[in-house]
Amino acid sequence: MAMTYFLSSLLFLAIINGIHAVNYSVTIKTASGARFDRDIGGQYTLQTLDSATNFICNDILKINCPINRKDVQHISIFVADDMDGDDVAYQDNNEIQVNSRYIEGYSGDVKREITGVLYHEMTHVWQWKGNGQATQGLVEGVADYVRLKAGFAPSHWVMSGQGSSWDQGYDVTARFLDYCNSLKDGFVVELNKKMRDAYSDSYFCDMLGKSVDQLWEDYKVKVRPRVIPNHGAKVDRGAHDLETDQDRDRPGSIPSTIEGNLPSQITESRNIRNWTRIMAEIPARIKKRLIN
Asked: What is the pTM of this model?
């Protein structure tokens, strides 16, 4: 017997634009939903749908004007065990299907994982898709970008700078979009608005002054995983912690030509402006090389 939860929510987009009501429902269509009931729950899922809608419409895509957003009245979620293959979830016509078998078999924090999945799928409800002209990779990338900005990126995602193409989709494209948004605040907002009726790769050049392929090349150079000497661990610096060849040799930084000889704690202090302090920490033999 299916169990259904309901929530009627008022989406406060802007006082001047009035109030947009959205109804949510969660239906459990499986007898093997014990972990969903125990670790997630129908009421939490309803609250997550409401929070995701407000986050997407007000904070990330900023579609808080009636002429810019879809007229969505009802959003339904079905937790079932009859999904094909290993699919986690999918959205179609404002209905989200979630695989209960994935929930039952997940080994980590399943509540956090499904919360991230719901933010992704809810983005598909609200985002524009270029009237069918945008690549699937870009559409999925925008959804994972929202998941990233909401703070629900899982540990298995690629690091910034990884991936084979900008529209590879999902986490790869999400991190690339985060980089593009760091170049121009509001880039993703404008991109989504442009995608209401059509899509073209030229949108990237229109807003950022470079082709999307050139932006991808720049991204691969400027944002890449690095290995800290003596540690061997990769560090994901993200779009807001960029480093270029010019950065490494700017005044106040340790020259890259001797960097490999410095202790690791000094190597990580690239941005320290107090040169006297750095000099005091450098072994005498390296200090001599700098003075000479």
From this structure: 0.75
